[in-house]
Fold this sequence. Notes:
The protein has 133 residues and is mainly alpha-helical. The chain has five helices and two strands, in the order ββααααα. The chain has helices at 33-44, 46-51, 62-92, 97-104, 108-132; strands at residues 23-26, 29-32. The chain has a two-stranded antiparallel sheet. The chain is elongated and about 50 Å long.
Amino acid sequence: MDFTATAWSCSFCGTQGGEDTRMAGGLGAMICMDCLTYYYESFSESETTKSIASPPWAQMTDAELLSKLPLIAGTSTQVDRFLREWVKMIRERNISYAEIGKALGVSRQAAWERFSRVMDTNHVARASHSSSV
């Protein structure tokens, strides 16, 4: 799984990772150092914590709300990509779709339908590449 900053974006501000970007996080949600510093400082002081007690969208204009939609969609895409890569890692350990389905609270068939096309295609491509080398 690619865990370099350039492969991810901050789930809080939407900043795309770059060569100089430092990210923290996991399980699909990432946070850049600017956001981490901001929230650390905000939660370290009780007065600042009180000022951010309400969600930021409560004060946003309609245009600001709409401008955040692509960032939210990007975060959703990133989490889905992370989930697929996680399942790929699980499948590489020969864990069955039945076990994956059980962990996700769905049937084996549902897990297979959601993940097999991408996972099995990658596995076949690697196997073909290995045999041709």
